[in-house]
Amino acid sequence: MDLGSLTLDSNDVVRKCVSILGIRGSGKSNTAKIFAEELINAGVPVIIIDPDGEYKGLKVTTFDKFSEDPEEIVNLVHLGRSVDLDVNEWNEEVFKFLTSLMNYLWDVSKVRKKDLFILVEEAHEFIPQGERTPLSDILTRIALRGRKRGLGMILVSQRSAKVNKDVLSQSEIYFLHKVVHPVDIKVYKEILPLKTKDVENEIKSLTTGEAIFYKDGELRKIRVRKFDDQFIVANDLDKVEI
C-alpha cells in the first residue's frame, strides 16, 4: 500500500481498526480515500458509509437509494466488489437500513469469513461518544470484535472528541492530521506516547496532507499523496522522536 511517503503491507492492515482524524481541510478525507483505493487495488473490498459524496472516483458500486436488500449488498462485497453507500440524507430510514446491513454482515461473517473493511466517514455522527443507538452498537461491536470475522474498520472524523472513546482508543493504526480545538488535541495527547508539549508542537506544525502516523509503537510524520496524483514523489519526512 503506497500512501505517499509511507508504504504499508496490506497483510499488516487487514482486520484492524484504523482512525483517520483531523479538521476539515487537513487532508483526512484524502488520506481515507487513498487508503481505500490501496485496499481495493490489493483485492480487499471496502463498504463506504459516505455522507458527503467524497469517495467518487474509486472502483466501487454506488448505492444512493436503499431499496436493496442488505443480503444483496453483502453478497456483492463477498464476491470482491466494493460499495459506496451515498447517505447524504441522514434520516431514520437510512439509519435503519445501515443497522440492518451491518447486523446482517456481522451474522454472515461468522460463517463466511472474508477480509473486508467498513469505512465510516463522519464517524462522530454514527458512533458518537456518550450516546447509544442500534447502529452505533453494531458498529462498535464490529470495530472491537470484528478481527476474528475478517472485518476491519476505518473511522474518519473531524471531531475526534465526539467519536466513541472505546472504539477510538482500541484503534491499532492512526493517521492524525491537524486539529485546533483543545478537546480534540487532548484526544491526540491520550493516543500518542509523547509529552504534552511535544504533541502540541507536532500537531501545530502539520500542513495540509501531512499527518502523524502511529502503529505498533512506530511514530512518524508523513505526507499523503493526493488522490489524483499519478506518481508518488514524496520522500520520508522527519521522524518524530518518542
Automatic annotation (TrEMBL):
This is ATPase-like protein. InterPro entries: HerA-like (IPR008571), HerA_central (IPR002789), P-loop_NTPase (IPR027417). It comes from Metallosphaera cuprina (strain Ar-4). Residues 6-91 form the Helicase HerA central domain. It catalyses: ATP + H2O = ADP + phosphate + H(+); Couples ATP hydrolysis with the unwinding of duplex DNA by translocating in the 3'-5' direction. PANTHER family: HELICASE MJ1565-RELATED. GO terms for molecular function: 3'-5' DNA helicase activity; 5'-3' DNA helicase activity. Belongs to the HerA family. SUPFAM superfamilies: P-loop containing nucleoside triphosphate hydrolases. Gene3D superfamilies: P-loop containing nucleotide triphosphate hydrolases.
